Amino acid sequence: MACIVLAGVLLLCCPGAFALDPALDVSQYAHTAWKVREGFFKSGISSIAQTPDGFLWLGTDFGLLRFDGVRAVPWQPPPDQHLPSDSIMRLLVTRDGTLWIGTINGLASWKDGKLTQYAELDGRYIYALLEDREGALWASGFAAPIGKLCAIRKSSVQCYGDDGVLGPGVFNLYEDSKGNLWAGVKDGLWRWRPGPPKFYSLPGNVNGIQALGEDADGTLLVGWKGGIYRFVDGKTEAYSLPGFTRQFSARGMLRDRDGGLWIGTIGQGLVHIHQGRTDAFAQSDNLSGDEVGGLFQDREGTIWVRTLGGLDRFRDFAVATFTGKQGLLHDSVAFALAAKDGSIWLATPAGLNRWTGGQMASLGKQDKKLNGHIPHSLFQDSRGRIWVSTVEGGGYLEGERFTPVTGVPGGPVHGVAEDTAGSLWIANQLGGLLHLVGNRLTEQIPWTGLGHKDNASALIADPAQGGLWLGFHHGGVAYFKDGRVLAAYASSDGLGEGRVNTFRLDADGALWAATEGGLSRLKNGRIATLTSKNGLPCDGVHWSIEDDIGSVWLYMPCGLARVARSELEAWARAAGKDKGGDAKRVQATVFDSSDGVRTHGKAGGYGALVAKSSDGKLWFLPWDGVSVVDPRHLPINKLPPPIHIEQITADRKTYDASSAANGRVSLPALIRDLKIDYTALSLVTSEKVLFRYKLEGRDRDWQDAGNRREAFYTDLPPRNYRFRVVACNNSGVWNEAGTFLDLAVAPAYYQTTWFRLSCVAAFLALLGGLYQLRLRQLAREYDIRVEERVGERTRIARELHDSLLQGVQGLMFRLQAVRELLPGRAPAEAIEALDVALERGDKVIVEGRDTISDLRQSTVGDSDIAQALTALGEELAAQGNNGAAPCVRVLVEGKQREIDPVLRDEICRIAREALRNAVRHAKAQKIEAGITYSDSAFLLHVRDDGIGMAPEVANQGARAGHWGLTGMRERAKSFGGKLEVWSEQGAGTEIALTVPAAVSYGKSNARHKSWLLRKKN
Fold it and tell me: What is the arithmetic mean of pLDDT over 669-694?
């Protein structure tokens, strides 16, 4: 992937990004061992190489391993390809990225997924591989009795040695800075090129010439005769190993990028030569084995050592520690003092050490100068004298002479200070506060005299104010001047709780107190304390010191912290406000055990536990030596780590991410558990590499994984995903581009789109079927109800006709007969009343017949409403109105639509009642019936020019003895319509019926039918 290629280019372009300090011994480097006996490997490592992607390749007797600094994963070629043998002898990565694999049975190369074997070297041990400056690959094919040396250039292979001049073969190959190619054989050395090959006899090596290297001046170095020799013009001369006298048989040599020479020996571990010093590191020092097979320096500057017992890594610490191996009289150092001449004085139980110009000198306690006393506290006064406090008393060193001071009580001293007058003040744990003027004790103040039952644990002079600051063992700070305490501060005033460990005065005159509860700042009587709430990694502070480049260092129980001075100043400004100090945070860089820092829960010791030398280095005491950090030269790894996604495991089945087709891994359906393995190639401190990952399509935000190299997911639904991962190296440099891998989780058959669409279609079909079934049920119910209704209406009509109307008709006949008998005999009033009764009887018969007609048949039948109203208008016109025939006109607007037959019948009844009322009661001569078909509703208007009616009648809808309007309103309401009436006496009448479209239209709308039936009933 592109990000991997970019990371490889960065590695190639920036070699030695994390270099080794050449001034240090091997024992002062960070060392990690992976041992065969601990089960990390099956056998010793025979060779090491690093490919451009950052992986370290390890050759073993059981195959090839790919190592990321944490996991060693066996590597196998594709199924259709194979290595000459699984027993690996030599590995080499050439400049084009090809991995050359030398085995006990031949040579192969691996590039771009293809494994190539070279028949010319079949059946031979590959003892040595080298790429020369011209790009040719040289391979040594070892075999008894005749070996080969072959040069491989592109596709051509040219071999030498068939004449036996190389004996069984070449043990090692080396190209020096002048371009000479050297080959070490059994009894000597060949200069193979340029020019004709030339042999130099170096007999006596049982194991042949295996160690070849180069001195700083370009002279060839050869491992021979129990040591290292310079080889000049065919002659050998001894190579100086300062301070090292043992003989050894050299197997390999490496000149690191910082000038140090590393020598691997047979049976004696490592020999290291640097800056005029020689030191050794063997199995007794925790090396994986004394049988060193070879050395390798990777692109980040880390040194790798392969032994018969495993693999070792050496890298630089940010903080180096000096112990007895570097000349300390004792590893337990009680006090460090930076003298004005640039030297560092160290107080140990065995005496004094002095570090000057890279050399450690000593002044043992048995020296007459110390009179057998054990030093534990040091101080240099303004005259340059070094004051030494011991359990027995005290004195000072001036030049080479030690002068004891009488009268000064013995006991632990926790601080010495010099006031502006040049007199000394000593905080003696048992004797109190001592005052020395010249060499004479003039004053001794017990701690109770200062208001404390505990002793002072810190002391510093304040030159600006002329007094002393005292910090106490159980907490609290006091300002002492002119024989009395002028001010005192406690935790209740904001001071950090617990023991006051050390003091520091800054350039602004502020006093900084390192306490068990935080770093407190006191200025102008105001205290603020910096704690973990403000960004520190923890609360306790053993000491603080400012370096020369703008940072303040804090030694804490959780490590060595560095805070920029600007950060502290910003916090101090915020702390000067009422509530700002609690909210302001500082950014701290923390160095821990992986950086060479040993931490302690309690400060302990006497006085200052840190000193700054004239070169800016900080010397502090970890209780197992003296540690040194150089703020100007911190080993920063600037290379972002290449990142790889290695494999996918889905429900216990593994998928190789590197061989994914089209950059995508296709996963089966219904996976429950998914694990993604990834790694980042920063081999300096692999355990400090941090990761963040995100599965696009599942995760909303980046997930912080710490140093975990696995991501887990469960029950992923089928879809396409993209897994992204980024990482940072041990120095916090992030590879923000990271890498990614596309994943596709296949759906099960019931998760596919076609299946879901089929289910939706089937469900809709089922709903449709149920809907049709329900419609049929409603239609049957509707037909049954209609038949019942028609039958009931027919029965009522028959009953009315056969009983009531017949009886009324008979009564009318009798009354008519009576009327025929009355003329001439009855008074005129009786005859008139009888005529009125007969007339009303005729009207009742007419209305009864109309009702029977309405009950027996539909008002409109199969006709539409307009035709029905037209026919009704003709009928009313024929009947006349007091001899005058009214004019009825029917108007239609909009496209005619089919209306439910039952609803159509109801609408026609309302229209018929309106027309009859206009003719009979309003005595109208002109009647207009308007029908409107719109998308929103069906509208019916009946307008006339009749006599009208009173507004209260039109609004209330009823008049005594008349129920026409009320019935029309009730009928309209029954099917969801709305009837409105507008009329005034003498101004005609307008009746409007509005029926919503949802109710009006639709011939077979069963819901409307059911609704109408419910309304009717």
Answer: 93
